Task: structure prediction
Amino acid sequence: MDEHIDDCIIIGAGPAGLTAAIYLARYHLSIRLFDCGTSRAAMIPCTRNHAGFPDGIKGTELLDRMGAQAAKYGALRENRKVERLERKDGVFVVDTDSGTWRARTVLLATGVVNRYPDTLPRPLHDEALSKDLLRYCPVCDGYEVTDKRVAVIGTGEHGTAEALFLRGFTADITLISPHGDHDLDDQCREKLADAGISHVAGPCGGFAMEGGQLAFDTANGRMAFDSVYPAMGSDVRSSLAQMAGAATSDEGCIAVGDHLETNVPGLFAAGDVVIGLDQISHAMGQAGVAATRIRNLLAEERPLRR
Ligand SMILES: Cc1cc2nc3c(=O)[nH]c(=O)nc-3n(C[C@H](O)[C@H](O)[C@H](O)COP(=O)(O)OP(=O)(O)OC[C@H]3O[C@@H](n4cnc5c(N)ncnc54)[C@H](O)[C@@H]3O)c2cc1C
Result:
């Protein structure tokens, strides 16, 4: 094992991890970023709500720019998947698929993975996403579906809440259950009826792009929409946090304090993996706070002086 100990290892090079890398590298700290190439930001065809880009910016371009900025100040990047994390004798041991590293502090910025119907093949999923026929984030791109024909694939309180949120952008919304019948209590049904949102039972299958829309089969026959939002929740990538002893919520979000520190000393988390708005701006803001707290924590252990 390499005996070198980094000041901070950041796991995840999405907007949160890269922002932290820029801050920490500019604090003259030795830092290392690990990433396995699955940022949610890389799925964004063009973000139009991220401040500073009036004509929008492609997710991969934003990540490239941030990566170049972090590298410019000395952040080292390893394109590897981290498989194990533990804190031993006050030092974090980070095991990857091809080597082990050690660090005084760790920032987890591992994000989440959106769920979508398993009847939607991945190549079609990706193509529909690139054409804005499939969307995941009403907060980000509800504006783009203004007065369009929209489906929300989901049910229960979560599906209802997403459909109601989108009602602020269009009157033509259908809530479609991903499986069989809907799981909607009286309150959800009342809210949907009040907002004029129809609901249709599933299952959803036979997805195809037809006439510039995304079409699929439902209990009411074949339906087609300008944009479809899966609202089936997400899987939070917090297993490394749990391995290291950090507390997580029932949904798996990493529990943190005001400065983004977990209950494990020296272990921080930022971005989608922490409960929050699941937005680039939020991920970046949290990362800036976490990075500065990490810097100050390290300065308590040894003076940081030039
Ligand atoms: C289709 C779509 C459109 C969106 N549009 C917008 C928008 O317009 N505006 C907006 O603000 N937000 C948008 N979002 C949300 C935005 O993408 C996320 O909020 C943001 O990417 C969160 O950043 P993050 O750094 O927390 O996580 P991520 O960007 O998901 O990055 C997490 C990183 O961790 C890495 N990782 C995970 N586990 C490991 C491991 N074990 N080892 C090594 N690396 C690991 C992954 O490879 C990944 O690169 C959109 C999301 C989607 C899916």
Q: What stands out?
A: Residues 5-113+234-301 form a domain with the FAD/NAD(P)-binding domain fold (CATH 3.50.50.60).
